[in-house]
Design goal:
363 residues; alpha+beta; 7-stranded antiparallel β-sheet; 15 strands; globular
Length: 363
């Protein structure tokens, strides 16, 4: 592998033949001696989004919702949120659909992905989310759209997102370490995490509160999950197999195929990440470009990689430098798990590239 200051790393690669390669290095809790394993639990942040997408597409399969249904009746509190344009708040004209939410074309962003939202004064703001930044279906902005998709899933299913994920995804796939609220019996497996200062350039230091102090009651479909590398690899294996894992099917093949198609048409992602908070997120340099697109579950990389990963690969990551990809053409899926800020840091991305190079060389 390559030189790194990371106290712990886990990487897993799997293929369509059922073969698997694990790499583990370092300490699960940085101040203790126990080695990190594939069963340890990481904050996976935005890798939650693909789980939410799977749940949403299950409801589409069941006929509970269509991708292009107007969500005004189901989520009126979402539709009422105005658009912030040129410093003014205006009333939206176009409806928001599930397709818009799953593709980040609804207009919702994050304070770490949009400069105007980062400056917005919420002191007297009455809505459940920040203002939208454009009419739905016209641009791409990475943000809280998937949180709204999570609320839609709760509305349609009558279950909390935690219960829905457990019943419809985690239990069928035997994902025992994936939770919004990690059970007391598993909290000892939660790993340390750290940061590199406000500018993202300082020495790595451990952050406090490794174990959450409060129970989550409002579930974030965009960023709320804890999971283990072993668990998430089961999900990746299921998707690599077009919705089936060890005889259990959670999505139809045609649904997974649809999720992997360009869903944003001619909308460009070239400017994604042009604004970011240096010590946190979301610098997309090297991730998004003029050729990348978005499906219903993640980014579509339309360029081959020198080490062998093929164009058409689905990928995404989480705030604390966890990443995955699914290369359907090669029949390979891989993921890496570290826990540090800022996002898209070379300490992890360079390791993942080297791990991938080794995997593809032995394909």
């Amino acid at each position: 592998m390559v030189a790194s200051d990371l106290p712990a790393v886990v990487a897993i690669a799997i293929n369509s033949k059922g073969q698997r390669v694990d790499y583990t290095y370092g300490k699960a809790i940085w101040s203790e001696d126990a080695k990190v394993t594939t069963e340890h639990i990481f904050r996976i942040y935005s890798m939650t989004k693909i789980v939410t997408s799977i749940a949403a597409m299950q409801l589409v399969e069941e006929g509970r919702i269509k991708l292009d249904d107007d969500l005004s009746t189901l989520l009126p509190e979402m539709i009422k949120i105005p658009i912030l344009s040129d410093g003014k708040l205006i009333t939206p004209k176009s409806p928001i659909t599930l397709r818009h939410l799953l593709t980040h074309t609804s207009g919702f962003g994050y304070t770490s992905t949009d400069e105007e939202l980062s400056k917005f004064d919420r002191s007297k703001w009455e809505y459940k989310d920040l203002p939208r930044r454009f009419e739905s279906g016209t641009q791409f902005l990475y943000g809280s759209s998937t949180d709204w998709a999570g609320r839609l899933i709760e509305k349609l299913s009558g279950m909390s997102l935690e219960n829905y994920f457990r019943k419809k995804i985690c239990e069928p796939l035997d994902m025992t370490h994936t939770w919004f609220n990690v059970p007391d019996s598993l909290k000892r497996l939660i790993v340390s995490r750290g940061r590199r200062g406000d500018d993202g350039l300082q020495p790595l230091t451990e952050m406090p509160d490794r174990i959450p102090a409060k129970t989550v009651t409002e579930f974030s479909g965009g960023a709320g999950l804890f999971s283990s590398p072993a668990d998430f690899s089961k999900l990746l294996q299921c998707l690599l197999n077009y919705g089936e894992f060890k005889g259990v099917r959670i999505l139809k093949r045609k649904t997974v195929e649809e999720m992997n198609k360009n869903q944003i048409g001619n909308i460009s992602m070239a400017n994604a990440g042009k604004y970011f908070t240096p010590g946190i997120c979301c610098n997309f340099e090297g991730i998004t470009s003029s050729t990348t697109k978005w499906g219903l579950g993640g980014l579509i990389d339309n360029e081959d990689k020198p080490y062998g990963r093929r164009a058409g690969t689905i990928l995404w990551g989480g705030l604390l430098n966890t990443y995955f990809y699914i290369d359907y053409k090669s029949g390979i899926a891989a993921s890496i798990y570290t826990q540090h800020l800022p996002f898209n840091h070379k300490a992890t991305t360079s390791l993942f590239a080297k791990f991938s190079e080794v995997i593809y060389s032995g394909e």
